[in-house]
Every structure is written in structure tokens, then in C-alpha cells.
Specification:
Layout lengths: L4 E3 L2 E4 L4 E6 L9 E7 L6 E6 L6 E3 L7 E6 L4 E6 L8 E9 L4 E4 L3 E6 L1
Parallel strand pairs: 2-11
Antiparallel strand pairs: 1-3, 3-8, 4-5, 4-9, 5-6, 7-8, 9-10, 9-11
């Protein structure tokens, strides 16, 4: 079982920044593709950003391109999401996901709330 520990959410004004962190202790972190997803009230969960491995493929949702940056530090077993120029429509619960292709398994964190005020 992979436990994911998210932190960094909060309340910020439009145009501000936040950095989310997701730690996955006690696993071989480099084996996992890591991603951030979000779910706004009344909407489906959507992919925000994904990083396959250090130096590997990175994918962003069109709505966050140029504003969000995903990165990972395998030595710290942590993935980050730097969010700049936040907009009210970025308000959502943000979830960390770990995926290991060997077993086809997804693991989810409990989520962290990001609220952007206008």
C-alpha cells in the first residue's frame, strides 16, 4: 500500500502563488509516475499535470500551461506542484496520484483544498 501525504493548500488571492507537496515515504519513488489532479465542486476530477520520471515526459492540462510547474525529487520521495498566477477557477481539491505500470496500480492522496479568491 502506497501512502501519499499532501500539503500546501490554502486560501490565496487571484494572481498569487502556492506550492503543493506530495510525499510518498517507504516506497521506491522513482518507479512511480506522479500526477496532480483536481476536483471542483460539481465537476469531475481532472488531470492537472503529470511527470513520468525525473527528466522524462511532463504533461499539463491546457488550462494551467504556463502557470503551473510539476517537479519531483526522487531523493526526497516528493512531487511538487508550483502554481503561479492563480485564478478563481483554479479553486478545487487537489489530489496527488502515484501510478506504477508494472502492476497497473493507482494510489491517491486524501486531497488538499486550494481556494482562490477574486
Amino acid at each position: 500500500q502506497v501512502q501519499l501525504e499532501e500539503s500546501g493548500g490554502g486560501l490565496v488571492q487571484a494572481g498569487g502563488s502556492l506550492r503543493l507537496s506530495c510525499a510518498a515515504p517507504r516506497v521506491t519513488f522513482s518507479r512511480y509516475a506522479m500526477s496532480w489532479h483536481r476536483q471542483a465542486p460539481g465537476k469531475e476530477r481532472e488531470l492537472v499535470a503529470r511527470i513520468i520520471k525525473t527528466g522524462g515526459t511532463i504533461t499539463y492540462a491546457d488550462s494551467v500551461k504556463g502557470r503551473f510547474t510539476i517537479s519531483r525529487d526522487d531523493a526526497k520521495n516528493t512531487v511538487y506542484l508550483q502554481m503561479d498566477n492563480l485564478k478563481p477557477e483554479d479553486t478545487a481539491v487537489y489530489y496527488c496520484n502515484a501510478f506504477i505500470s508494472t502492476y497497473g496500480m493507482h494510489y491517491w492522496g486524501g486531497g488538499t483544498l486550494v481556494t482562490v479568491s477574486s
